[in-house]
What does this fold into?
Amino acid sequence: MRYCPNCRRINEAWPERCRFCGLTWNVRICRRGHQNPANAVFCGECGSGDLTDTARGGRIVNGIFRLFQGGGPFPFLMLIVKLAIPILILCVITQDLEAFLPLLVALVILIGVLKYAVGLLPSWLTGRASRYYRGRVKNYKDRAKRRDSRGK
It folds into this structure.
């Protein structure tokens, strides 16, 4: 999903242009379809001065959408957990429980803060993100089934 700050609408997927007002986000496109930087005056490929306008702003909302598109609702949390598991195993092996407890408490606090932050998001945003995520999971499972059926 992508938010357009010009027309204030949400576009499904991650299109190159807004489907409602036609503006691009971070590139300017000439009539022949060449992409140029957002500050370009002329096309770098063909020299055309007829470039699309860009919809400036909306970086915070689009950043939230990118967070939800990163393979799960909490990619940052997953990274922290993946880094913490070897440390927890090392603490258990060395029987250093004084190092284990603060790490566990920090993980619980981090999960709580992220859960609270997601609770502050508007319901339309969390609903769209969860529908998008469920669709990605379903597509992944369908691809896995097709791959498994070819192997048999």
Summary: Helices lie at 59-69, 75-94, 97-120, 123-151. Residues 140 and 152 are 19 Å apart (CA to CA). The chain has two domains: 1-69, 72-151. The mean pLDDT is 76.
